Amino acid sequence: MSDATTLAFETDCHIFEGCGFPTPGLHSFLFKPMFTVGGIEFNKPILLALLSSVIVIGFFWAAFSKPKLIPGKLQMIGEAGYDFVRRGVVYETIGKREGEKYVPLMVSLFFFIWMMNIWSIIPLAQFPVTAIIAFPAGLAAIVYVLWVSITFKRHGFVGGFKNITAYDKSLGPVFPVVMLFEFLSNMLIRPFTHAVRLFANMFAGHVLLLIFTIASWYLLNGIGIAYASVSFVMVIVMTIFELFIQALQAYVFVLLSCSYIQGALAEHH
Amino acid sequence: MIALVPLAAEEIQNPLIPPIPELVIGLMAFAIVFGFFAWKFLPAINKVLEERREAIEGGMEAAEEARTEAQSVLEQYRAQLAEARHEAARLRQEALEQGTALKEELRAEGQRQREEIIAAGHAQIAADRKAASQALRQDVGKLATDLAGKLVGESLEDHARQSRTIDRFLSELEEKAEAAR
C-alpha cells in the first residue's frame, strides 16, 4: 500500500467479493519519495523527468553528434524531427528571419515535452510527467518570461504595454475596457492556460487509462469477465489514442509558444 | 484501500499548485536539454545541413555546366550533320548530272552506230541490187539472144509452132528460175 498507483494491483480484490471499485483520483498523482538527496525528495515523476532529459540528449547525441553529409538512419530520423519543428512550427509562425533565434528553444521544448508525455504508455513507468503541473508550469513560465521581455525590448515600455493591451483608439469609448481584458487575458490567463492545457490533457488521459486498467482487473470475476474484456479493449484503444495525444500536445505547446513570441515581435496585435 | 484513503486525504493538495522541488528539477532538466540542443546538437547539424545544401548546389552547378557543354556539343554535331547532308545532296546531284550526261552520250553513240549500221546495210543492199540487176541484165540479154536464136532457128511459118516455142521457152525459163531458187 505504499504506492497509490499500484493500488489496484495490490488490493487483489475483484467484483462480487465485497469490495468497492478502487477509483483512481488525485491520489493517483501523488508519489512517495523514493530517496532524498541534498534535502530534495526524489519521487517517480522527478526521476522520469530527469530520465527524459537523458533519453532526449542520448538520442540526439547518437543522431547529431557526428553528423554526416549522407545521413544514417538515426540522423535521418533526428533531422526529420528537427525539420518538423524548425520549418513546420517556427518558420511557419515567426518566419525564417526572426524565428531562427528561437529554433533551439522550440526544438528542445518539443522533444522534452514529448518524451515526458510518452512515459504515460511505457510499461513500468506508465505515468505522464507533464500530469504534474510543476513541469508544464515551469516550461510555460520560461516562454512567458521570454515573450514578455521580447515585447518590452522590441517596443519599449509604452509600446510594449500597447502591444500587450491591444491598444486601439478606433474602438471608441470601449477601448479602455478592451485594454483591460486584453491585459488580463495576455498577462494572467495566457500563461495559465498554456501550462494547464498540457497538464490537463495528460492528467485526463492518465485517469482514463487508469480507470480502464483498474476496471479490467477489478471486473475479472464471474460474469464480470465479459465486461473486463471490453474494458481491456478500451485500455488498448486509449493507449493508442494517448500515443497520438502525447505528440499533439507537445506540438500544441510549442506552436503556442511560437505564436506568443510572434505576437511579441509583431507591431500591434 | 481503507488504509489508503486517509493517507491520500492528508497528502492531497490542489493539483494546480506546483510543488517546488518538481518545478525546480523540471526547469533544470529542461535547461540541460536546451543547453545540449543550443550549443551542441543544432550547431553541428546546421553545419552539416549547410554543407549538404552547398554540395547539392555545387552538384547542380556542375550539372548545369555539363548540360551547357552537352548542348554545345549537340549544336556542333547538328551543324556537322547538316553540312554532311548538304554535301551528300550535292554529291548526289552531281552524280545524277554526270549519269544523265553519260546516258545522253551513250544514247547518242548508240544512235550513231545504229545509223552507221543502217547506212552500211543500205549501201550493201544497193550494191547487191546493182550487182543483181547487172547479172540479170546480162542473163536477160543472153536469154533474149537465146530465144531469138531459137525463134530464128525454127521455121516461122507455123504460128502454132511459134507459139509452142515461146511457151517452151517460158517454161524452161521458169524451170531455170526454179532451179536457181
UniProtKB/TrEMBL annotation, chain A:
Subcellular location: Cell membrane; Membrane
Listed transmembrane segments: 46-64, 102-122, 129-150, 170-189, 198-219, 225-245
Presence of keyword Ion transport: yes
Alphabetized SUPFAM superfamilies for the sequence: F1F0 ATP synthase subunit A
Major site of localization recorded for this protein: membrane
The organism's place on the tree of life at top rank: Bacteria
Keyword flag Amino-acid biosynthesis: no
Role played: Key component of the proton channel; it plays a direct role in the translocation of protons across the membrane.
Protein name: ATP synthase subunit a
Organism: Streptomyces avidinii
Lineage: Bacteria, Bacillati, Actinomycetota, Actinomycetes, Kitasatosporales
From TrEMBL, chain B:
Keyword Kinase tagged: no
Keywords assigned by UniProt, alphabetized: ATP synthesis, Cell membrane, CF(0), Coiled coil, Hydrogen ion transport, Ion transport, Membrane, Transmembrane, Transmembrane helix, Transport
Coiled-coil ranges from the UniProt annotation: 46-116
Main subcellular location of this protein, as a coarse class: membrane
Location(s) in or outside the cell: Cell membrane
Membrane topology classification: Single-pass membrane protein
SUPFAM superfamilies: F1F0 ATP synthase subunit B, membrane domain
Transmembrane portions of the chain: 23-42
Pfam families in the record: ATP-synt_B
Oligomer and partners: F-type ATPases have 2 components, F(1) - the catalytic core - and F(0) - the membrane proton channel. F(1) has five subunits: alpha(3), beta(3), gamma(1), delta(1), epsilon(1). F(0) has three main subunits: a(1), b(2) and c(10-14). The alpha and beta chains form an alternating ring which encloses part of the gamma chain. F(1) is attached to F(0) by a central stalk formed by the gamma and epsilon chains, while a peripheral stalk is formed by the delta and b chains.
Family (UniProt): Belongs to the ATPase B chain family.
HAMAP family per record: ATP_synth_b_bprime
Task performed by this protein: Component of the F(0) channel, it forms part of the peripheral stalk, linking F(1) to F(0). F(1)F(0) ATP synthase produces ATP from ADP in the presence of a proton or sodium gradient. F-type ATPases consist of two structural domains, F(1) containing the extramembraneous catalytic core and F(0) containing the membrane proton channel, linked together by a central stalk and a peripheral stalk. During catalysis, ATP synthesis in the catalytic domain of F(1) is coupled via a rotary mechanism of the central stalk subunits to proton translocation.
Protein name: ATP synthase subunit b
Source organism (scientific name): Streptomyces avidinii
